[in-house]
Amino acid sequence: MYAFTFERPASTADAVKLAGNGGAKLLAGGQTLLASMKLRLANPEQLVDLGGIAELSGVRKDGNALVIGAMTRHAEVATNADVKSALPALADLAGGIGDRQVRAMGTIGGSVANNDPSACYPAALLALGATVITNQRKIAADDFFQGMFTTALKDGELITGVSFPTAKKAAYIKFKQPASRFALIGVFVAQTDSGVRVAVTGGGNGVFRHKGLEDALAKSFTPEAAAAVKVDPATMSSDLHASAAYRANLVSVMTQRAVAKALG
């Protein structure tokens, strides 16, 4: 690793000030950043550890929504009573991320800010119509994710939490890549007050909604309706792990299973 300085601020305000320095990187769970530094793919001059900021952790109710602090660990989301009661699909998703070590260290804010094209949380945000809360503004999930490892965050902007509206029915199913446990394909389906939303992760350059599946499930929220929708392989990526055609088939299969799970 390269030489760097380390800061551990106690407040969001202090973290924002430090993040404004050129060459500084915010450190959440460190599951991606530290690995990149070890491989010499990242060379921050300063690390700003957010782990000491108590106000960035925890889950609270806000009307019909749940607000989850950016530094809340995956393991905490998976076991939190309010999340399990109001959004069991989100708790289930968090409990299936990586392994125990990753879930004990990784954070929802870190995952969302990193926007790995195969990460699980972005699918939940997009399907549930969540809102990303920063120190400057609120950003709808539809506007937040902008492609591979790219988001709407500005330089020095810090995620403080994510607000999730509750859903009538929701479920997440993923086909794991065996080595990384990221989603080879993951599908989050949600039946909400505003309609049905279907978000796919692992299929391309970033998480995306599938309009064809949404339209079909809005008419009939059944596995059979999902099975009738053709998923175009041309919209999928192809690599050493799976072909585009294989991923397209997985989107269909995972959606059918997610709908069946949501229906109980």
From TrEMBL:
Boundaries of every FAD-binding PCMH-type domain copy: 1-169
Coiled coil: none
UniProt xrefs under PROSITE patterns: FAD_PCMH (PS51387)
Domain of life: Bacteria
UniProt cross-references to InterPro entries, sorted A to Z: CO_DH_flav_C, CO_DH_flav_C_dom_sf, Diverse_Substr_Oxidored, FAD-bd_PCMH, FAD-bd_PCMH-like_sf, FAD-bd_PCMH_sub1, FAD-bd_PCMH_sub2, Mopterin_DH_FAD-bd
Classification via SUPFAM superfamilies: CO dehydrogenase flavoprotein C-terminal domain-like, FAD-binding/transporter-associated domain-like
GO molecular function, one term: FAD binding
Key words of the record: FAD, Flavoprotein, Oxidoreductase
Keyword Flavoprotein: yes
Protein's UniProt name: Xanthine dehydrogenase family protein subunit M
